[in-house]
Design brief:
mainly alpha, about 70% helix, membrane, single chain, two-stranded antiparallel sheet, transmembrane helix
Length: about 375
């Protein structure tokens, strides 16, 4: 009997991107058999390597639908639960922390998840975690804290402290949650039962049901009470398109620039700009919009922009960068978002074309 000596090899960022284009795990070491041992134990090595799927296969794209829907509902639900008078933590922080925690858990369990069903890894990281967390919402939250759109009785310096605190708290809790999730997964890895992968028929059934889940969103929007539209159903119309856009950007752009994941950077910047534009339309000072249009704008803000941008992927990418690269990536992403909001929202507020409070009505 031959003994397999498992050594730890660091995986470079570009290697990771080629395997999972959207979610870049931190630079960790994974157990990988040496080449000589694989020649001796071919069958065992084949079992250790998770099966590969094309990043644009129908099974992966379809499974993004229900997971992006669940991520959006979880984010909206957590924000609603955490929005109460006298709260010590802003409501969006809970969604960011839980999404990053789930990301860390899934990253550390990548081999197990991919061996069970390869599309499931992308569905959890890109679909659920990416939709539960939102970069554009973070940027807007900071900008509104600095400009004091809620009209709290406080000084300009206190506005600065509030915006700065939301900036560093979100970044810190996101990075810490990813690390904590990885540690939890490491402790649970040997206790989880091994589940046989689904057969071909079950995989086709999963894909068909995933597509049907998106088709079911349309009757839910029109048949459920109208007050549900701005709260959830309108956002569900645009959740999957937002996630799909982010995923396609990451697949095609993340490997173009070695210095930073350009796909994620583009998605976060574009989503922040769009959110600023939708906010201006919802706050327009003249000719108020109809309730139906207001619901669609709210759905675009919560659904498309919320799922197009992500903090969980952003946090993992920051942790994977060595030296000062992570710092410059954070600074560039955050600064571009704030400058975009300053240009779009600030110009509209200060010229009187839009109010700082929402003028849209949903009834």
């Amino acid at each position: 009997m031959h003994t397999i000596n498992l050594r730890k090899d660091p995986i470079s960022e570009l290697q990771i991107q080629s395997q999972t284009p959207n979610e870049i795990p931190s630079v960790e070491t994974v157990e990988r058999p040496p080449q000589n041992s694989c020649q001796l134990e071919t069958d065992l090595c084949r079992l250790r390597q998770p099966p590969k799927s094309h990043p644009l296969s129908l099974h992966i794209l379809a499974l993004l639908i229900p997971f992006s829907t669940l991520g959006t509902l979880a984010r909206l639900g957590l924000q609603a639960l955490a929005a109460y008078e006298g709260g010590g933590i802003f409501s969006l922080a809970y969604a960011q922390a839980i999404g990053c925690l789930m990301m860390g858990l899934t990253l550390r369990s990548k081999d197990s998840v991919s061996r069970f069903y390869p599309p499931l890894y992308t569905a959890i990281t890109t679909g659920f975690c990416g939709s539960l967390t939102t970069f554009s919402g973070w940027e807007l939250d900071v900008f509104e804290a600095w400009t004091n759109t809620a009209r709290f009785h406080r000084s300009g310096f206190q506005n600065f402290i509030d915006g700065t605190g939301r900036t560093f708290f979100t970044l810190s809790i996101s990075l810490a949650s990813v690390a904590f999730g990885e540690q939890l997964a490491a402790g649970l890895s040997h206790r989880l039962p091994r589940i046989p992968p689904p057969n071909h028929i079950v995989q086709i059934t999963i894909t068909v049901l995933s597509i049907a889940s998106y088709l079911a969103v349309f009757p839910a929007y029109f048949l459920l009470p109208t007050n549900f539209r701005h709260q959830a159903t309108a956002a569900l119309l645009f959740a999957f398109p937002g996630t799909l856009t982010r995923y396609l950007l990451s697949v095609h752009l993340n490997t173009l620039v070695k210095a930073l994941p350009f796909g994620t950077f583009t998605a976060n910047s574009a989503g922040t700009a769009l959110l600023g534009g939708f906010t201006v339309l919802k706050n327009i000072s003249h000719s108020p919009l109809s309730p139906g249009i207001c619901s669609i704008l709210q759905g675009l803000s919560d659904g498309y922009c919320g799922c197009l941008t992500t903090v969980s992927t952003f946090a993992v990418e920051v942790r994977s960068m060595k030296g000062w690269r992570g710092f410059w990536y954070v600074l560039a992403s955050w600064s571009v978002g704030q400058l975009l909001l300053l240009t779009i929202l600030g110009a509209s507020f200060w010229t009187g074309r839009a109010k700082e409070q929402m003028t849209c009505t949903f009834n």
